[in-house]
């Protein structure tokens, strides 16, 4: 009986550390966007926005105003 309890406890610990992480969802989905200056694709959280246009860097934003 004590081996069964120990086995269940080990299974629960393994599930807690390895199984539950795969089911977490991000609160914000990342979208790939194309830079209007050079055509490079960047994620939406790294993009620079100016006047409804998307740029990959401050340099591209400055050169294409």
Give the tags.
two-stranded antiparallel sheet; 65 residues; alpha+beta; 2 helices
Number of strands: 4
How confident overall, as mean pLDDT?
Answer: 84
Structural class: alpha+beta
- Please state the CA-atom Rg, rounded to the nearest Å: 23 Å
Can you put this structure into words, describing what you see?
- This protein starts with a helix and ends with a helix.
- It has 65 residues and is α+β, with helices and mostly antiparallel strands.
- It is rod-shaped.
- Strands 1-2 form a two-stranded antiparallel ribbon. A two-stranded antiparallel sheet has the order 3-4.
- The mean pLDDT is 84.
- 6% of the residues are buried.
- It has helices at residues 2-19, 58-63, and strands spanning 32-34, 41-43, 48-50, 53-55.
